Task: structure prediction
Amino acid sequence: MRINGNVSPEWLDAQYTLWQENPSQVAPDWRAFFEGFELARQAPSTDRELAAKESAVDSLIYRYRDLGHLLACTDPLSPCKSEHPLFSLEAFGLSEKDLDRTFYPLRFPKHVATLREIIALLKDTYCRTIGVEFMHIQDPAQRHWLKDRMETVRNQPKPTREDQIEILKTLQRATLFEAFLHKKFLGQKRFSLEGGEAMVPLLECLVAHAAQHSVSDMIMGMAHRGRLNVLANIFQKPLENIFAEFKDNLELAFVGDGDVKYHKGCSAERTVAGHKLHLSLVANPSHLEAVNPVVLGKCRARHAGYGPGGRKRVLPVLIHGDAAFAGQGTVAEVLNLSQIDGYQSGGTFHLVLNNQIGFTTEPVHARSTLYATDIAKMLMVPIFHVNGEDPEAVVWTTQMALDYRQKFARDVVVEVICYRRHGHNEGDEPFFTQPLMYEKIRQRPPLHKVYAQTLIDQGVDPKQIAALEEQTTATLESALDTPQTEQKDIGYRDKWSHVRRDYRPEVPETAVPAERLKDLSTRLVDIPESFQVHRKIAALLRKRHDAVTSGEGIDWANAEALAFASLLVEQVPVRLSGQDSRRGTFNQRHAAVVDQKNGQLYFPLAFLERGQAAIQIYNSILSEAAVLGFEYGYSLETPEGLCIWEAQFGDFANGAQVIIDQFISGSGTKWDRSSGLVLYLPHGYEGQGPEHSSARIERFLSLCANHNMQVAYPSTPAQLFHLLRRQIKVSWRRPLVIFTPKSLLRLPACTSSLQELSEGTFHNILPCPAAKEDVRILLLCTGKIYYELLEAKQDKKRQDVGLLRIEQIYPFDSNQLLDTLAGYPNAKQLIWVQEEPANMGAWPFLRSELQKALGQEPRYIGRKAGAATAVGSHRRHQQEQQELIEGAFVSKE
Result:
């Protein structure tokens, strides 16, 4: 019951009026309050005074639950607070005379208690080394669960002696591992965990407790700090392998270019009390929080594979630094994904390792909030602040937090407040910028020594503790002297075992028999009779079906739907997500139709035939980075499926550049991870200004090397059909960037025949039908500009001009280009034509490729180089477009 300064008098009066009219209209707590209030008004003065005191005590209890964390002793570097004006007795109209008075508090573990006993229980629960924020949660069931869980035991763990020894051993392993690396590999970066060693018993507890909850998969994402420690002590990566990386043994070999050791991922199998648990640490670049959506995408794919109950079997764990959690926008985007249909992962366990500093930046300059974790309050989930030098409290909180996640399928945040014993890295000097903080840190003994003394004071034999430490040191020394054998390339495993690691050109069978396509088209328009489809959508669906049955006029969206349908009935799952993707930004897709009477949705692709694969099409949140990262993570777990992210406009991919640069383009060579993710990027110059014209083809091409991904700009619906099917039919997986059209979605010339879908395959290069012997000028282009050039060619009756479309820009097929050009024996002029500025589009990449293949550089026709992708004036755009089209037909002979 909320009776404090946060309740306005107006609201209280309104609730009181409702209660007077009908008591059932207000919450049970308020009913009890108003009943007591009425009794107090009617009672003698002494009874009214007692009722006021009871109400004051209830308010005091609420205050401790709501704000007790302000008195919690959670910072190991600061003295603990003992008083706060918000908790003074006078603030509630109470005094010391009331301390031994008996009260009857509502919803309290002790139904009858003195005020002194009540305050003692509340301080023990909320003001020791665990501070809790949970009263902002609006769900009463969740609040009551947390309150009962904490107050009945005063939020104090009762570990057994065996538990305590295990905690000590993990602390010893964590600290001695770091000290050993510092001694043996002096000066090498390792992003030490020292000062935050409590993270290791926390994660060890999380593994064990997750096993008790029958969790099958724990997928983790974390930045640099403590990563090597986690690999060694949680993932149990062989120490000799870690030491070999510090020795930089190139002769041991690794796939691709590799990455620094504190970026790499890892997988491991742990067996805890007979339960097998798969652990996965996702590789992460230096963009600290970029891995978050990748982890969630992987988790979503895995729990979907488990079917009903899968969410409880897959646990996402994200480890953040305090400055990054408060400062990186990706955090808010990922939190927003947590309860969105299509992106739910059953709740994420967030561990915030609070270093109390970001590089050299203090909290006052790093955030505008009291806590680094305040952003998480947007979800109304519990936030636990724990003193990093109380490992027993850390472990207890971990168990409670995981229990909450498993019960309510929601995120949970555990902030371990600690410090960095060294600077940002081991070569940094923190005294330059934080001398006062680091003087305190310098004087603090290692945590395992502090905890060992606690156990000695409780009666543990010091010799036992020393023996454990000696054993850990001996293990480290032995591993250093153990040579690592050469790692053999064992290829991809498990669900990736059928996928080739290396790229090779392939032309798989992608055509689908015409009768099969007609049958699928019929099913796509077979909407239940009771479903009230909008008349325009019904007409659109009929038009698409008529195009398939007639064999002519299949447009872009129709070909896409047929590609999806044909894959689904071949047991290939399809997932497409993006902003407004169900309808389509340009009103073209309508993958979900809406009942005009009740708003229900119907997905024709989901009802093709019994036993088909699953179709997922979701409208995403207004985010590029988080959603693209999520879909990339999803694709890592679904090599057998087609996974597509669609930008609302192609240039919106700018907002996800970190995911593109660090994960999509480089994950194969850095981390030996393949992805078949498809990016749909609408592109084309139609006079809509610099923000809605270019998908930045040049940026993607600048990332291309060593067959790391595919870049295509298909110009016909049939080409899209075959390209999507090829993405699944080839034996390897590489990201595929498709520049999709806008105006071409409805251009009558941009259609395909049924025969083009039922025969042939994707063509890297498409020639324009022409009398090849007559061609003297050959225009090379890609994408939308082809149709404008074709129209001009026909209007001008220029039989001497031929058109070649380069449909796949990377990998660039120079041999096919030469073979195609050989069919034009009289072509004397080669001209590259594009609508993008000269420093953009495909020209900067193809310029050298064409010169290398042809022995000469083609003449360039297009816009001059510019700082912006396009002009803002539609009229000026039309002028420029007309000029470049005209220029393409001017002979320079």
Q: What stands out?
A: The first helix runs from residue 9 to 21. The chain is about 40% helix and 15% strand. The two ends are 88 Å apart (CA to CA). Residues 1-5 have pLDDT under 50 and may be disordered.
